[in-house]
């Protein structure tokens, strides 16, 4: 009999190896959130995670904002300030991209 009885039997399956202790962490987190371990893993995979690029951008942001506040924010209107804030974000990610580029060159 090849007939599937449960919807979960139609799903793709894979085996996963966890580092020491991670399975216990997942089990505890699943129990705390009232989910199965499978549901906990899927919830974590589905959650947006910060990338290394995001981390680098966040690291660059304080200095960019300090410069913006000291130099560029004087006498700006609200609409102009909003555009400037978008530019600050773009600059932060430009720094992040440059850091990632240098990082990948160093790995060669």
Q: Count the beta strands.
A: 0
Largest sheet: none
How many individual helices?
4
Spatial separation of the terminal alpha carbons = 54 Å
**Count of distinct structural domains:** 2
Q: Structural class, please?
A: mainly alpha
Model regions low in confidence, pLDDT < 50 over at least 5 residues: none
Q: Any idea what the radius of gyration is?
A: 23 Å
Helix content: 55-70%
Quick check: average pLDDT?
Answer: 80
Quick one: overall form? elongated
Strand content: under 5%
Task: Please provide the ordered H/E string of secondary-structure elements.
Answer: HHHH
Please provide a written account of the structure.
The chain has two domains: 15-46, no CATH class; 52-106. By secondary structure, the chain is an all-alpha fold. Helix 1 (22-33) packs across helix 2 and helix 3 crosses helix 4 (78-106). The longest helix is centred in the C-terminal third of the chain and has 29 residues, at 78-106. It is built from four helices and no strands.
